[in-house]
């Protein structure tokens, strides 16, 4: 696994400067108080574009967050996708069902083994991008070598398995 890029670290530090001065307090589990539960940052290996997701307990701080976006985007032009995810439940889950798009772009471009993929909010790789790319390539090689006539992709995460395999054989 590769080390975090300097751009990734800078993105995380800049995102942190958005919520503190605007009194978007971190969620305190024991007290069940505060708004910011998580900052989720994703970096595309293709072009360095980034997706930043603010996971909030409620939508009460959305106005403060929206007001900070022009400054944040000026500081980090590689931020392509910015969202607020509302996770109101006091449970150990990373995100809620409601995703509020705060940027014009809704997905990050990625490319593994000449297969274009789009990372959207609430999508994920089962592992890190380098390992995912190797897994897709291994699966493609197996399909080429075996007498596979049918395949099912149960679609979990970004959905990269089927695009990685579809040209390995003429399958349905």
TrEMBL record:
EC id: 2.1.1.189
Binding-site residues for S-adenosyl-L-methionine, renumbered to this chain: 126, 155
Gene Ontology MF: a single term: rRNA (uridine-C5-)-methyltransferase activity
Cross-referenced Gene3D superfamilies: 2.40.50.1070, Vaccinia Virus protein VP39 (3.40.50.150)
Record-level GO BP terms: rRNA base methylation
Keyword set includes Transferase: yes
Domain of life: Bacteria
InterPro entries listed in its UniProt record: SAM-dependent_MTases_sf, U5_MeTrfase_fam
The family this protein is said to belong to: Belongs to the class I-like SAM-binding methyltransferase superfamily. RNA M5U methyltransferase family.
Annotated PANTHER family: RNA M5U METHYLTRANSFERASE, TRNA (URACIL(54)-C(5))-METHYLTRANSFERASE
Record's protein name: 23S rRNA (Uracil(747)-C(5))-methyltransferase RlmC
UniProt source species: Raoultella planticola (Klebsiella planticola)
Gene this protein is translated from: rlmC_2
